[in-house]
Amino acid sequence: MSTQPRPILVVGGGLAGSEAAWQIASAGLPVILQEMRPLRGTDAHKTEGLAELVCSNSFRSDDPESNAVGLLHEEMRRLGSLILSAGDANRLPAGGALAVDREAFSKTVTDRLEAHPLVTLRRAELTALPAAEDGPAIVATGPLTSGALADAIAAVTGAAQLAFFDAIAPIVYKDSIDFDRAWFQSRYDKGDGADYINCPLNETEYKAFLAALEAAEKTNFKEWEENTPYFEGCLPIEVMAGRGPDTLRFGPMKPVGLTDPKTGKRPHAVVQLRQDNALGSLYNIVGFQTKLKYGEQSRVFRMIPGLERAEFARLGGLHRNTFLNSPRLLDGELRLKAAPHLRFAGQMTGVEGYVESAAMGLLAGRFTVAECLGKTLPPPPLTTAHGALLNHITGGADAASFQPMNVNFGLFPPLPAGPGRKMKKVDRKAAHAKRALAALTQWQAAIPAAAE
Q1: How many CA atoms does the CB half-sphere of 32 hold within 13 Å?
Q2: Does the pLDDT of residue 403 top 80, yes or no?
Q3: What would the pLDDT profile of 180-209 be if each residue is shown by its tens digit?
Q4: What does R_g of the chain's alpha carbons equal in angstroms?
């Protein structure tokens, strides 16, 4: 007579926790997904929905042949990812990127998990780490882990946690944008060719904008926050501006690939806005994460041509982010070396980005299923996007200087040397992708599932 297996506990209902729970349930094992919201909120979340996107609504490039994150998308689709399935179901125009209606995306993830017969959603805060006698568990509480649980994690790791700040970009109502100045166009006319709203600045306007950014009043840090570094991939706009007068023109305000239809020329600088909801009523200002005070944001951002009368659905903000020194603390299956019944997943492991976080949730779920079934699942091959990223955070990176990392082809093993001339970059990326998907197919055959 068979006994019902004990449910696996997944703590945290963000992207990684939702993905981990889905993978476990899809493999035929029961799972409890525990999320503290709405009983306890955070500085960044606004809803009680699972997999809420608190920063951008973009999963970045969806090109599997020439972009590592696009390759990661494709691998996750092939592995039955809930996050990618929900993203595809709620896709918005974004050129070559995968952007989503954030509210509809979260609702899709929440609805699918709540409807799954093997998933139990528990709304409660966890203040201590699960005990070994309670079986394997996955901690995916993310960068905004509550204080009590963060203290418990710090106590069991025996190592100081690293921390940095994440900043959030403002969202604008489309009907408040002046299209006598702004126009629709994707950079290099990618996607539908008109997936972004563009606000052009001439040299005088650009310099005035930089001066206003420099002079604007910023959010003050608490004493314990003053030495916390930013993550380089999510710098506030005013921090970037402080690095030199052309930094923004070569970053989020770069004008390349765009032509102002009113002049027929490329502007000196451009501010782009990307659709944020399915109705097309909300647009977020791309790359404009900020720690300016709210009043200053309204004043300074309304200096941008086309946004003079902008109405903001959400202003930018700043929140603290924490992550583990994973190369030192985690093994190759995302288990905490000091307490191997615990796996960590998501942004807390030192990956950066929505998709990377969800991918680590996917792997944590698959590893835990194999363990509970008494089987062994080898890590995905290093030649796959999943394997390259996992290897980096669990040993490939230098623990002494470990920082959050997006997936990129620099993490992949080199391609075999070929005859003749050196391979072009575009061909090299395509070769990485082809090799990755072939290796993933072989690895999939080793993934165990519960017997029906």
Answers
A1: 17
A2: no
A3: 999 999 999 888 889 999 999 999 999 999
A4: 22
The pLDDT value given to residue 148: 85
SS (H, E, C) the chain: CCCCCCCEEEECCCHHHHHHHHHHHHCCCCEEEEECCCCCCCCCCCCCCCCCCCCCCEEEECCCCCCHHHHHHHHHHHCCCHHHHHHHHCEECCCCEEEECHHHHHHHHHHHHHHCCCEEEEECCCCCCCCHHHCCEEECCHHHCCHHHHHHHHHHHCCCCEEEEEEECCEEEHHHCCCCCCEECCHHHCCCCCCEEEEEECHHHHHHHHHHHHHCCECCCCHHHCCCCECHHHCCHHHHHCCCCCCHHHCCCCCCCCCECCCCECCCEEEEEEECCCCCCEEEECCCCECECHHHHHHHHCCCCCCCCCCEEECCEEEEEEECCHHHHECCCCEECCEEEEEECHHHHCECCHHHHHHHHHHHHHHHHHHHCCCCCCCCCCCCHHHHHHHHHHHHCCHHHCCCECCCHHHCCCCCCCCCCCCCHHHHHHHHHHHHHHHHHHHHCCCCCCCC
For residue 139, pLDDT beyond 80 = yes
Q: Is the pLDDT of residue 364 over 80?
A: yes
Query: Is there a contact between 17 and 119 (Cβ–Cβ < 8 Å)?
Result: no
Q: Cβ-count burial of 228 within 10 angstroms (0-12 exposed, 13-18 middle, 19+ buried)?
A: middle
List the Cα angle 224/229/234 in 5-degree steps.
125
pLDDT tens figures, 92-123? 999 999 999 999 999 999 999 999 999 999 99
Angle between helices 82-89 and 15-26 (to 10 degrees): 110
CATH class of 167-320: mainly beta
> How far is Cα 426 from Cα 33, in angstroms, rounded to an integer?
41
Q: Any idea which architecture 8-161+324-444 has in CATH?
A: 3-Layer(bba) Sandwich (3.50)
**Tokens 């996007």, residue?**
385
**Least confident span in 105-109, 127-131, 274-278:** 274-278
Reported as half-sphere exposure (CB side, CA atoms, 13 A), residue 165 has a value of 22
Of the candidates 127, 117, 207, 166, the one whose C-alpha atom is nearest the C-alpha of residue 290 is 166
Average pLDDT over residues 148-166: 74
Domain layout of the chain by residue ranges: 8-161+324-444, 167-320
Q: Which of 86, 112, 107 is nearest to 98 (CA)?
A: 86
